[in-house]
Amino acid sequence: MILSIAKWLLGLVAVLVGGLLFYAFLLPRPADTTDPAIFLQDGRTVNYCDLPDLDGSGKFANDIPKAYTPDCSYTSIPMPILAECTEPLAEGVVDMRGLWLGVSGRVGHLERIEQCGNRVVVTAHGIIHDFRTDGSLKNGAQDVGAVCNNFNTAIHFDEEGVMVFRLFDLFDTVFREMRDDEMIFTFIDDTEIRTQRRCNYPE
User: Fold this and answer.
1) Pick from 138, 135, 99: which is nearest to 118 by CA?
2) 120 burial class (0-12, 13-18, 19+ CB within 10 angstroms)?
3) What is the pTM of this model?
């Protein structure tokens, strides 16, 4: 009896692992709707302390095509994806916009966060993550992982204003939160990166 249960559990694990590997490396990626213009200029030239006014006077989040990572990584810093978006932040969404540099934990970690409405674009380490914070997989991050793998993450803001990333909407993996004027980035292993705002990319 115990042997039969063990075999059944091993079979279930094998199916789950096989399914994840198929999704990660064999399933076609979503159709690329990235505006190619973001790669025509150097995103390093932008002052990221000069943030757009989210006053509703310009484009809204739905007016701007979703961006994806080209191939497995971009080779030059893209221009901001949401530069023309002025849609006010949605209810419950915390303003984390800016360029953030790690000063503790993973010192030197650098990421750019853009926001309008409930849409967020995180650009870091050669990867563009463009998603909505509505807690759904459909509108979550469907992009490239660290080993050029597909992944799908649902993202939402909790009641304390923490941006929570749930891999396949099964378990929490990454957290971002504002503490004063610092952005704190925490991984599933409790590694905490304290980041501070920068206006420009370092040389």
Assistant:
1) 135
2) buried
3) 0.89
